[in-house]
């Protein structure tokens, strides 16, 4: 492939606590390449930039391009962030504080870089090109180790006055409930995320309830989403019960959001939804509908996210294009076609 005549290539980067994903995206929003590296999280900022650049070089090479053809880049990162300055304020997972990752990458790449929250960029890709593309009012919830989300109202992603809005995982749905990682109690995340599911499975195993997951937790100290999916497939009663409980509490949170916002659609993504599939989303929808008085006709669509692991770097690339090269975008925004 030869893109010498096409200056419109954008780079997307998804920086996670365990892995870095990067890809080159063209003006139509097509993914031309993907690359992956482990995040050297214990080694701090400079090592992370080095690993990102290795991943970037591989993705650019795979796309048949060179770095000087990249017009701009987007980075999705755990936060909290100062998005305007491109600075990660702190991240326990990445072992950094006040790290100016945007300016540093911009210098090495030789192009402008936009930095935004990892969950928001994933939601943005689903909104523009994934499961939310037919709608202008959408709630996105991503359920994995934690729960993140974002909200699009009238075609605009809500950032709020603090630019940190969308923390639907930290809505309190059980006052005085289990302690959450954020310091509060009874958040949706503390009731429904993978960490909560594992904690309750361990508790059930300690009580002597039989589960195939007890040995896995003891051996590895944690569970992967696919371990849960395997146990559900094997009709492990403890796993089935806890997955259903997670879907129920996420549904309570979603039902609350439906009542407040009245969206056209709710899109559920993240490792848990990806591994457990439509069965999980069906349970979330059922739970949400029991309290969604703002949806008497049950017309609000609740569906699974469609972009999987591509969502993060793709959304970062789309944001970068719209920030720095908006006239080049050729993908259909709000398209109802597939
Ligand atoms: Zn919380």
Topology:
Elements (H helix, E strand, L loop, with lengths): L8 E7 L3 E7 L5 E8 L6 H18 L7 E8 L3 E2 L4 E5 L4 E4 L1 H9 L3 E5 H12 L8 E6 L3 E7 L2 E2 L30 H5 L1 H13 L6 H8 L4 H9 L3 H25 L3 E5 L1 H6 L1 H14 L9 E4 L5 H15 L14
Parallel strand pairs: 1-4, 4-8, 9-12, 12-13
Antiparallel strand pairs: 1-2, 2-3, 5-6, 6-7, 9-10, 10-11
- Which parts are unreliable, with pLDDT below 50 for 5 consecutive residues or more? 1-5, 334-338
What distance lies between the first and last C-alpha atoms, to the nearest angstrom? 26 Å
Q: Helical residue percent?
A: 25-40%
Bound molecules: zinc ion
- Count of extended strands: 13
Principal-axis shape equals globular
CATH C-level category of the largest domain:
Alpha Beta
Q: Mean pLDDT, rounded to whole units?
A: 92
How many discrete domains? 2
CATH H-level superfamily title of the largest domain: ATPase, nucleotide binding domain
Number of helices: 11
* Strand percent estimate: 15-25%
Radius of gyration (Å): 20 Å
In spatial order, strands of the major sheet run: 3-2-1-4-8
Question: Main β-sheet: number of strands, strand sense, barrel status?
Answer: 5 strands, mixed
Topology as H/E string? EEEHEEEEHEHEEEHHHHHEHHEH
* Architecture per CATH nomenclature, i.e. the level-2 architecture of the largest domain: 2-Layer Sandwich
